[in-house]
Amino acid sequence: MNVSGKQSSAPRTADRDAPSAAPAELPAVHEAWLPREHPLHRPRHGAKQYIALACALLFFAAPVLSWTLGNRAERLENRELASFPSVTGGWGFFTGLNDWASDRLAFRSQAVAAVEGISEGVFGEPAPRGSDPGGAPVGGGGGEQRRSTEPDPELFPDVVRGKNGWLFLGHDVSYKCLPDMELDRVVAGLRRWRSVVEASGREFRLVIAPDKSTVYSEHMPDEYVGRDCMRKLRSEFWRRVPEATGAIDMRPTLRELDRRRDEPVFTKLDTHWRHTGGLAMVRRLAESLRPGVTDTWKVEPGRTYQHRADIPALVGENREWTVRSYSLAPDGGADNTRFVGSDFHEPLHLESSARPGMIREPTRMIADSFTQFASPYLAASFADLTIAHPNNVLTDPERTGRMLAEGEVVTFELSERFLAGGRYAMLAPDMAEQVGQILKRNPV
């Protein structure tokens, strides 16, 4: 009660939640259509917005314009170019446009080469590059979350420059320092595959293709990012995996070849072995299946051809090396090799009439790019062979299982860096189980 009889000027509590006045009515048109002097006028796009829109349009239109003018995108990295995203992919269409446009920028290879040249010529060091050139490994790993104490993937270069011009793939190091799967799980995965194959009555063989940096560690630089963690896991890998899985270890064979030959089994520029290494793998594999079968083999020098080196391409360099192939007559007679180019993503079937010195049993193989340098000699010495890529196990286990079920022998050729790094998705237990069920329904 106001004892003075005067009205209080303090607001009442209830009035605090009440609107002080009715809002002004908004105009019926968009702010951009109002007169500039109107207090609510706002332009639809500012100058910075127009610049951003123009840059975005240029970025995405450049690949189309350059293609129209005859410029074609080239692979600079160890992966396929990003494909145009599907319009049915929802927001994935917009997020996928960036990778597609980046891969198809005009003069991209020249730009990469220019950056490399400036870095080396002016600063005396290679241009810094990330550890992952955008390409996925052959398979996915276990997906464990990395601990904060582990090195940053961006610290690892795509290419490790060794001594006397030797180049090494950066993944030889980074995959071992940042494994997707612990070595125990890698061993368990390989042993599970052997178990399901042999349980179906088939023979199983596993060949491990060693990294170039393992065979020629003396040509690696004295110091490089990840040296200690790479060496530690590499040592443990070769100490445990061949014995625990029954794998064929190619290292002694390759070193013996090196002592007997004038040129190394690997080149300075490519991450794969030469045909010499591929032929040696085929010989070891055949002897493991039928001892003495190679006694009748006649091997002679074959044709030579130029091959684009894969490691220089990662830093924008287009360099080649001379491939020296061989002829292989399993019975000592006519050459029986067949050169069929394939990355094995679409299974490659090789068949010929059985001759002495050949493996006659139908053989089915899971193999990666190292086997590309062995396939002519597999064709010469295996009468019935089909080769599929490790990724096929993940993308279509049913089809891969049916393919393996056609064979009496199942062979895996897998690379050290992907095994040691746990990068093969097929090592997951469910992958072996799915394929194993198909083999079990079709025993030998």
From TrEMBL:
Disordered as annotated region, ranges: 1-22, 123-154
GO cellular component: periplasmic space
GO molecular function list: hydrolase activity; transferase activity
Location in the cell: Periplasm
Keywords, ordered alphabetically: Alginate biosynthesis, Hydrolase, Membrane, Periplasm, Signal, Transferase, Transmembrane, Transmembrane helix
Domain AlgX/AlgJ SGNH hydrolase-like: 159-307
GO biological process: alginic acid biosynthetic process
A UniProt-annotated Pfam family: ALGX
Protein name (database record): SGNH hydrolase-like domain-containing protein, acetyltransferase AlgX
